[in-house]
Design a protein that fits this description.
Blueprint: E1 3-7, H1 14-29, E2 34-38, H2 43-52, E3 68-71, E4 74-78, H3 79-87, H4 91-95, H5 104-123, H6 125-204
Parallel strand pairs: 1-2
Antiparallel strand pairs: 1-3, 3-4
Organism: Poecilia mexicana
InterPro entries: Glut_rich_SH3-bd, SH3BGR, Thioredoxin-like_sf
Family: Belongs to the SH3BGR family.
Length: about 200
């Protein structure tokens, strides 16, 4: 795509000459390919420019003044709109060209794209809150399950300890009963021995 700049090389207006120089000089600084089309010496260029400038962009007398800027057949604007685009760092958008990587306009477009994505993300804050709430509920349920498992484990341990204590108590009672039986048997044997001795003594008399 070639940028077309319609200008008047033999214009007697100092203001028009300055505006034309500003446009051409800035395009050269940006290394944008363009073509100068003279309307002063070429009637065909002058007629084409007048016919293709939109009616709403023409002055009250209906005759647009140079410089007028086109991208091939598409109208871009006049000096005033070009100057505004230059001030806003949107010249490439004004010309209908993609900004080169690393340029101010490219960085600005990237920043605006990021801001737009952020805005889209903020349009549905309820969804984010809902997702966060669901995640939090899941974590709380997991923690409750862990606590129940911990309490169940502690209850099992206490039951095991109680059964162990009961078993030890029963063993001690059984041992105590065995000891009592042995003591009673020993007492009976001693009584029988004493009785036998007494009978022996009585028999001797």
């Amino acid at each position: 795509m070639v940028i077309k700049v319609f200008l008047a090389t033999s214009s007697g207006s100092t203001a028009i000459k300055k505006k034309q120089q500003d446009v051409v000089g800035f395009l050269e600084a940006l290394k944008v390919e363009y073509a100068e089309l003279d309307i002063a010496c070429n009637e065909q260029n002058r007629m084409w420019m007048r016919q293709n400038v939109p009616e709403e962009k023409k002055p009250s007398n209906g005759i647009p003044l140079p410089p007028q800027i086109f991208n091939e057949e598409s109208y871009c604007g006049d000096y005033d709109t070009f100057f505004d685009a230059k001030e806003d760092n949107t010249v490439y958008a004004f010309l209908g060209l993609p900004p080169p990587p690393g340029s101010k306009e490219a960085l600005q477009a990237e920043k605006e794209h990021i801001m737009q994505n952020g805005t889209h993300a903020e349009e549905n804050p309820d969804d984010s809150v809902k997702h966060n709430g669901d995640a939090q509920e899941g974590e709380e349920e997991g923690q409750a399950g862990d606590e129940e498992e911990g309490e169940g484990g502690r209850a099992d341990d206490e039951a095991t300890e109680l059964e162990t204590s009961r078993g030890e108590g029963e063993e001690e009672e059984a041992a105590a009963e065995e000891g009592t039986d042995e003591e009673a048997q020993e007492e009976d044997e001693e009584q029988l021995a004493d009785l036998a001795a007494m009978l022996f003594l009585l028999g001797g008399r």
